[in-house]
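FORM 12-B: Structure-to-Sequence Request
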């Protein structure tokens, strides 16, 4: 609306025969930094001298805003439903809509965002998933009715630990002076030294930490001899009176 007011002023002053330079100076005094530029004043003054009446912008070329229709929204939704990994180029090829229109439909209308897939160690079958859900519900029910105690549950996992630790970028940030160079951190190499650890723990402390020696492979025999059996022995040490009775190893 401000542009229209400015153009009405330019139009009236042009009708009175005032030159564009004077009109621009008047607008600059009245509006300060919000005044239209001198080339803009000159262009609109020229149009009004040539007989133009309308103060609105000319229609712009390109795709109309009407592309944001229910039909196009459903079209984009269908492409994404058929292939959740579709790229913008894929959707453009299928719908013939512009990149900007597709972006508005996805983010504003469909309320969707693209995130990377989550990696999982195993692809479970439906039966395995149901069995795990069943066991979890049974354990949860026993925990709630007092049959299980949190301290009776033992679990474990394996992880690789590199000899040289690299912290996250946010913790590596440092203050530097105007003429100082930022510190550098060498990226971790693919074959840097590392060790595989098996860690078993309970609710309040670790039970067993096993480091696999260099050159050895963790197979089922290694896991039984170096992890499961030592865990059972450690539980006996910590619970001499009860032993493994009531212990749940998950």
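FORM 12-B RESPONSE
SEQUENCE OUT:
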């Amino acid at each position: 609306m401000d542009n229209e007011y400015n153009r009405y002023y330019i139009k009236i002053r042009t009708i009175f025969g005032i030159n564009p330079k004077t009109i621009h100076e008047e607008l600059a005094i009245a509006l300060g930094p919000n005044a239209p530029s001198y080339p803009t004043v000159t262009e609109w003054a020229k149009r009004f001298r040539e007989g133009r009446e309308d103060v609105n912008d000319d229609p712009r070329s390109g795709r109309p805003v009407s592309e944001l229709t229910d039909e196009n929204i459903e079209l984009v939704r269908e492409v994404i439903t058929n292939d959740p990994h579709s790229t913008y180029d894929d959707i453009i090829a299928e719908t013939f809509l512009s990149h900007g229109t597709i972006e508005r439909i996805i983010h504003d209308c469909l309320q969707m965002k693209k995130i990377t897939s989550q990696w999982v160690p195993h692809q479970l079958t439906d039966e395995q998933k149901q069995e795990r859900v069943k066991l979890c519900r049974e354990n949860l029910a026993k925990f709630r009715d007092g049959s299980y105690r949190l301290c009776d549950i033992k679990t474990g996992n394996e992880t690789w630990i590199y000899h040289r630790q690299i912290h996250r970028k946010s913790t590596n940030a440092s203050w530097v002076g105007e003429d100082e160079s930022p510190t550098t951190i060498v990226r971790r190499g693919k074959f840097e030294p590392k060790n595989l650890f098996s860690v078993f723990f309970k609710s309040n402390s670790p039970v067993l930490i096993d480091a696999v020696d260099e050159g050895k492979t963790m197979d089922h025999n290694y896991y039984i001899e170096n992890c499961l059996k030592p865990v059972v022995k450690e539980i006996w040490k910590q619970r001499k009176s009860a032993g493994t009775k009531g212990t749940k190893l998950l």
